[in-house]
Amino acid sequence: MICFLIGFMGSGKTHWGKIWAGVSGFNFIDLDEAIEKQEGKSIADIFERKGEKYFRKIEAKALRNFGSLTNTIVACGGGTPCFFENMQWMNEHGMTIYLKTTGPKILERVLLEQEKRPLLKKMNPAELLFFIEQKLKERAPFYNAAKQILTAETLSEHTFGKLLGTLKAS
């Protein structure tokens, strides 16, 4: 089984993906890190030099390279589900899990690493919260199409194992 973790930046996809992979014996892939390795540039550099349109194309292609993997958790970028029918593709090829969290929680987390986040670099906290809330509304139809929706604040190292157990039982 391949599992795709989706949700807004700062929702914990990489954090929980690594923990759950370790506990479950699954492999872990961070989609953004895979793209950075492939391109030899940071995501911020790719956005700055080639633009979002270019990034979204290579992101969709990189995502589809994982289609035949098994026992793998893939942490997707926050916008991944919203382009090139990626959400539909992920639902057809694996388990999608939306790590749902609130705008203020996301703000708290992304302020700590604002420089790494190309879309957020030049915003003050009030602008940032407005931006986050708007993006959450825009992306909600994609995120809510996930097969499983988990509230990020309630997660633990055992959440993924319990979810796998539930899936195997049904």
Describe the structure.
The protein has 170 residues and is an alpha/beta fold. It has a single domain, classed as Rossmann fold (3-Layer(aba) Sandwich), CATH 3.40.50.300. Helix content is 52%, strand content 14%. It has helices at residues 13-24, 31-39, 43-64, 86-93, 103-110, 125-143, 159-169, and strands spanning 2-6, 27-30, 72-75, 95-100, 148-151. It has a five-stranded parallel sheet with strand order 2-3-1-4-5. Helix 2 packs across helix 3 and helix 5 packs across helix 6 (125-143). The longest helix has 22 residues, at 43-64. It is globular and about 50 Å long.
Topology summary:
Blueprint: E1 2-6, H1 13-24, E2 27-30, H2 31-39, H3 43-64, E3 72-75, H4 86-93, E4 95-100, H5 103-110, H6 125-143, E5 148-151, H7 159-169
Parallel strand pairs: 1-3, 1-4, 2-3, 4-5
Helix pairs in contact: 2-3, 5-6
Overall body shape:
globular
CATH hierarchy class name = Alpha Beta
Distance between the first and last residues' Cα: 15 Å
Give the % helix: 40-55%
Q: What Rg do the Cα atoms give?
A: 15 Å
Question: Helix- and strand-based class?
Answer: alpha/beta
Mean pLDDT, nearest integer? Answer: 92
| Beta-strand fraction estimate | 5-15%
Low-confidence stretches: none
